[in-house]
Amino acid sequence: MDIIKGKENKPPRIVIYVTEGIGKSTFASQAESPIFIPTEDGVSNIEVDKFLIANTRGKVKECLRQLMNDKHEYKTVVIDTWDTMERQFITEIISKDRANSLNQACGGYGAGKGVLLEQTGEILFKALDVLRDIKGMTIIILAHSKVVSVNDPQNGAYDQFSLSCINDVTDQITSWADIVCFANTRMRVDDKTGMAKAIGGNGGERVLHTVGTPAYKAKNRYDMNPELPLNWNEFIKEMNK
């Protein structure tokens, strides 16, 4: 029998999604020996190794192929950002089929979305998991956030922060990941004006949420504290406690 006993010490698969301007790329650049696969121009001012902007599916796959096949000393791969990459994939699917939308592509009836899920699954399971399992690399996926409506049979409808992706892709990513965190600025409502203001200096205290609530989607498999400062050293210390 092929049996593995006890805990496997594999590198984590981390997803960080954020509100605008929170410092997600700076956070990921503090990881061990990172290499970025930028799908948008967001890391040009950060002192970190990076590929040229991968603005097509073919370019993303080529970056991953090089990391899988070439000798290198990188310990972390960062996709920055996933939702921009998703939009690129969708554009290519629609253009190839000369359709007007993803729903109409590939014959319609949701077939276009099925192709997108196959393509994102290829990145997750056939590339990123190989880098993790064979190359021993930590995986970090960065994404922007959006607000979605959730219809909860027990608690009724409410709004929730989630990844700025198609819902089925979000489900695919969050199921795959070991850690999904939402990062934002801690806010308070001014009693006099009724306006929300950031708490703390330098634009406000930036917080990483590791456990899901009705307000945001999050999870972790490491029994981490529900809230952490947006600091890589604090994050990895909590993960390894």
Can you walk through the features of this model?
The chain is of the alpha/beta class and 241 residues long. It has helices at residues 24-29, 57-69, 82-97, 111-133, 167-176, 232-239, and strands spanning 13-18, 34-38, 49-50, 76-80, 138-152, 156-163, 179-185, 187-189, 196-198, 206-209, 219-220, 227-229. Mean pLDDT is 90; it is low at 193-203.
Structural features:
single chain; 241 residues; alpha/beta; Rossmann fold; two-stranded antiparallel sheet; 26% strand
CATH class categorisation: Alpha Beta
Task: State the CATH superfamily name.
Answer: P-loop containing nucleotide triphosphate hydrolases
Count of helical stretches:
6
Overall structural class, as computed from helix and strand content, comes to alpha/beta
Q: Which architecture would the CATH scheme give at its second level?
A: 3-Layer(aba) Sandwich
Helix share of residues?
25-40%
How many strands appear in the DSSP assignment?
12
Shape: globular
Query: What ranges have pLDDT less than 50 throughout 5 or more consecutive residues?
Result: 193-203
Q: Average pLDDT, to the nearest integer?
A: 90
Q: What share of residues are in beta strands?
A: 25-35%
Query: What is the ordering of alpha helices and beta strands?
Result: EHEEHEHHEEHEEEEEEH
CATH fold node name: Rossmann fold
Rounded to the nearest angstrom, the distance between the terminal CA atoms is: 32 Å
